[in-house]
Specification:
By secondary structure, the protein is an all-alpha fold. It is built from four helices and no strands. The protein has a domain of 54 residues. The longest helix is centred in the middle third of the chain and has 26 residues. The relative contact order is 0.08.
Length: 89
């Protein structure tokens, strides 16, 4: 299907990479669960690092590879956003 779409677009003079994303309620729920896990993992790695845990100990405690813990350490923390109130004259 992907190749057919790419070929059809090329016949119209459009060169584009095509990504097909299957959608269903079950897959949406799975994607949300994965996003929640990723957030929880990042929070756990940050908390353990703040407590002085080594990368190796953090990897063992969270059950993820050391490379993933290192990647999470390398990401800058997301600063909190402030909501601005609309001023009324």
């Amino acid at each position: 299907m992907r190749d057919d779409l790419t070929h059809g677009l090329s016949l119209m003079g459009v060169c584009a990479d095509v990504t097909i994303t299957v959608v269903s309620p079950e897959l949406d729920r799975l994607r949300r669960a994965e996003a929640a896990y990723d957030t929880a993992l990042a929070d756990a790695v940050t908390a353990l690092a703040a407590q002085g845990s080594t990368i190796r100990d953090t990897a063992q405690a969270t059950g993820v590879p050391i490379a993933r813990v290192e990647a999470l350490h390398a990401k800058p923390p997301i600063p909190p956003t402030r909501c601005r109130r609309k001023r009324t004259p």
